[in-house]
Amino acid sequence: MPRVSEVPSKAPVVRVPAGVRASYVVFDRAAGRVVVARAARRTFRSASVVKILIALDYMDRHEVSAADRRLLVPMLRSSDDGAATEFWRRGGRKQIIERMVRRMGLEDTAPPPAEKPGFWGYTALSARDVVRMYRYLLERAPEGQREFVLQQLRRSTPCGTDGFDQTFGIPRAVKRPWAVKQGWSGFGETPSEPCRVRPAAWRPDLGLGRPVLHTTGVVGDKIVAVLTLHPAGTPFGTAAARITSLTRQVTRVT
């Protein structure tokens, strides 16, 4: 992967809500540089964003069967947790992250804490590494893997299989074309309001006990990663409105 500048030419004014820990990076593929960034190397627990790594690792090591596709499609489109847990088990849990770190050249990504080996959503990652993950997918992944994953992310469903609305952030802030993978954790097992279909040795601080909400993806010729950690007890709707506003600001200044 060619070296590019990772320092924006100027720092735009982006308002982050009080009490929210936020990091973001927007990488312009046409210009070959980062155009907006804030705390790019700060680590968060990944929530479902890690499902891209889980999918790519599995496809890299196996011939994908029809049965595999029946799990991979909802895992990527609708953030199905059961499918992710199955592939996490098959791949050796933390070994998936270790392999992907080496393959993609990730620097801030690490497996879940040793005492929580089955919690794939506790993988640590940064906005900068999320951008590197998408750059690998777009620039270096085998064509079959790339097209399969992007096809699912372009068809991201309005509702996740757990009932949470996954149209926050990029889907609400910018117009298509986009391909997205969302992440959420810490809002309970089921949403307080059911999702309705709408139109369009190092130990990271994972913020355990506080809700996270992430929006990541490819928007036109840009890669966008916005990661957020919210105060404990924040309702999902409040967090969704905040990250959507933040994403709108970040993408408008580019």
Ordered list of secondary-structure elements with their pairings:
Layout: E1 21-28, E2 33-38, E3 43-45, H1 51-61, H2 66-77, H3 81-90, H4 94-104, E4 124-126, H5 127-139, H6 143-154, H7 170-173, E5 178-185, E6 212-219, E7 222-229, H8 236-252
End-to-end C-alpha gap: 23 Å
Radius of gyration: 17 Å
Q: Kindly state the mean pLDDT as a whole number?
A: 92
Coarse structural class: alpha+beta
Molecular shape: globular
Total number of helices? 8
CATH architectural type? 3-Layer(aba) Sandwich
Helix residue percentage:
25-40%
List key phrases describing it.
single chain, 7 strands, 254 residues, two-stranded antiparallel sheet, five-stranded antiparallel β-sheet, alpha+beta
Molecular structure report:
The structure is a single chain. This protein is of the alpha+beta class and 254 residues long. The chain has one domain (21-253): Beta-lactamase. It has helices at 51-61, 66-77, 81-90, 94-104, 127-139, 143-154, 170-173, 236-252; strands at residues 21-28, 33-38, 43-45, 124-126, 178-185, 212-219, 222-229. It has a 5-stranded antiparallel sheet, with helices on both faces. Helix 1 (51-61) crosses helix 4 (94-104). The protein is globular and about 45 Å long.
Can you describe this structure in just a few lines?
The protein is an alpha+beta fold.
